[in-house]
Amino acid sequence: MKHHVGEHKAKKGLIRIEFDENEGRAEHVRITGDFFMYPEDALHELEERLEGQRIEDLEHLIDEFFAMRLDVETPYVNVEDFKIALKKALEG
Fold first, then answer.
1. What CATH number does the domain containing 12 carry?
2. CA distances from 76 to 4, 9, 40 (A)
3. Domain that holds residue 70
């Protein structure tokens, strides 16, 4: 099992994505930082969407989440910021 952590300083907040990789799948996915996401349960929903998924699918799943959940607001942070944090996690 490999542990991944990636951080990205967006325009107005830090995004940290952390998860374990087990047999090519993401486990124990946590997204934290000093950003806001409304509605508040959307962040937990995003983590659940990534949980158990293949590592190579995570970026696409983040795009899909934000495309489907048009009610989600992340002031000064956008989908690309989340994807950059993910890419940094996968690099390290």
1. 3.30.390.50
2. 25, 11, 16
3. 2-91
